[in-house]
Fold these 2 entries.
Entry 1:
Amino acid sequence: MGFEEIAAKAVKKISIRSGKKMLKKNGPAPEIAKAETIRMKNKTDEFYRVGFAKRITMPDDVTAKPYWLAGFKTGNLVTGVMDPMTVSAMWIDCKDEGGIIMVAADCIGITGYEINELRESLSDFCAETGCKSINVCCSHTHAGIDTCGYWGKAIVGPVPGNGKDPEFMKLFFDAIRDVCRESYKNRKEGRLYVGSVSVPGAQDVRRPPLVFHDTLTRIRFVPNDGTEETWFLNFAAHPNTLGGANTKVSADYPYYLRERINKEKKTNVLFGVGAIAAVDAGMHCEDRLERTIKQGELLGEAALSIDNDVCQPPEITIIQQPYYAPVDNGVLSLMGLIKTVNSMTAPCDKGDLGLALKTEMTYIKLGNQQILLIPGEAFPEIVYGGYSTAEESATGLPPEINPTPLVDIAGDKNLLVFGVTNDMTGYMVPPNDFVLHETQPYLNNGKDIKGRSHYHETNSLGHLTVETIADVFADIMSRV
């Protein structure tokens, strides 16, 4: 038995012991109540109110002390800045009944633990303004300073040390609080539109069954006073185009997307990713920076070209639903136990470890546009359908063992999905394509029946993730 096999067994044993200890000390995890369905509507006219604010979130000492780039490998030391990390907020309301905030952050992700701390720190603001929900959509750039903890220097084998810098995290969250408050102060009346466009060539799907959803969606607010519009864009492609050799901070292609739009039309632009598991940018060329710029410019031009905007009635529905996600990944569990990452864990009667992560999913309806905020990276087929057949799948199992695709649960092929939002829970892999290493699960890539290597499972919570997501969403839709 090799070291890695021994390590895998030890990690699993530690996690199981932790679950039993937690169960003995605290008893079963408390049942999570069904979240309230909140509905807001402008009863006087056809206008929304929207406000925007933006902050740069870069430390002054970025090269004077160690900061770690998040996304590719542990211990990747920052050596400079290509373009700055930013956070932006969009306040949306229907006048007198309160509103919601959507934050777009140039970062790899943020844990639900920290999101809850952020919301608690803004509780007075929410009480004063009637804010019903604060949501943070992370762009998942692979060239930002670590905001999760996964990418510090390795301490034992593949287990990293905490890569977060406390002073930077304070700066980062202070900036989010600032833009939340300022976006409320900046709100103006106007109309809200939703439009979309297909962008062929902007995606490279790297794992079967090769489901392409190349739709760029634009939520567009046009203020009545003729000042700058505010756009929230959504597209499914990993912002990882600068590659693993890069050591400079960057928002990756979303920076160049925003620059391209503002070159033609001064606009407040926010960006969030869709179902991005195994989906990279499609603008291939040898030079990584050139590829990044081209991807951003292609999407920026596509956003400017949208001509099918539909004006949305001023109505907002929101259900912010916490839930327990079973954890089978002993490595991720261990990282939580040793505080490499912050997490909210509880005993669980499902899965291999007896542990679950408390996370959340949020449903929003703006006018007629349905939106789902999910806490990780979904494979496109989970959202849009197109699961592997038994002959094509990694396991030889049929697609019928997979849950209903999310668009079918919603009854809406135009369901808009934002990934890596309000938590960072890893990949969501379809059950009939889920394969682990036989003796070193979650430590090394497994190989499927066709000899293909499987990386994504090593950074997933486990094989029950997709089933849980579908069940929670189906329950939400039953209440909508």
Note: Residues 3-37+315-368+388-479 form one domain.
Entry 2:
Amino acid sequence: MKQLIDISKELFESKQVGYIIGYAEDKFKRVKPFVAYSSLDTERFVFNNNSVNNLAVYLTRLPKAKEGKIGIVAKGCDIKSIIALIQENQIKRDDVIIIGVNCNSVVNQIDEQFSKENTAIKCKYCQVRTPAHYDYLVGEIKEVELPEDKNFAIMQKLDSMSAEEKWNFWEAEFEKCVKCYACRQVCPLCYCEQCIVDKSMPRWIDSSATTKGNFAWNMIRAFHLSGRCIGCNECERACPAEIPLSLLNRKMGMVAINEFNYRHGTDINQPTLIGNYNVNDKEDFIM
């Protein structure tokens, strides 16, 4: 993508950035995260339907640039993560240059050809194919066929279940968890220096892959993301046990919208849901 490379080169040559987080192809032609530290490195930048990773996760994991700002190539859904990190005071807007890209959806399986059948479910309900916030914008929007939202049908089925049936469903799913914590590592909003599951004095959650420990870990993480998850679905994509984590996070997001009219990661000036009190908030959920 020449436009992306040209903008990136200009940012380096004008000394506006210390490095830029983007995408590049490896020797097997797989698109992976790539950090450019010079104008020459930007020649490797690509963006296409295989640019799946949410690069915002690196904003709290990589060191600050020694000179200039941090540049980042981001899809609309990824930019929601960046806005969320700014809202939660993890990064400063003035420290980041956002190169937004118009996104024509991404693949579900990275080793397969892009098609309607191989399109990520999250793209079905995406409302930010053209990013809402950026410093530079590249690419063009094209008409694409989107997949059926099968996850929503599953969610409706879950909503119709009794409390016992829901418990049994999630207990069976969480039983598959191997406690690899890939969901935590890939999430841009899991940025705690010490995760609650790693605390041993006192130990809040059983660190081994037991029924009790698995259930506690997955439910606590879901509650920690309540009203915060931006729906990039990286956690579910990274899960080796294929636990439908997006169902939990998406449901929590729907509750935030329905009960508080709040969409995380959409307004850079809006306070967070958890960190803000409004006298007009509903209170009928309080027992």
Note: The beta strands are 17-25, 31-36, 69-74, 96-101, 136-138.
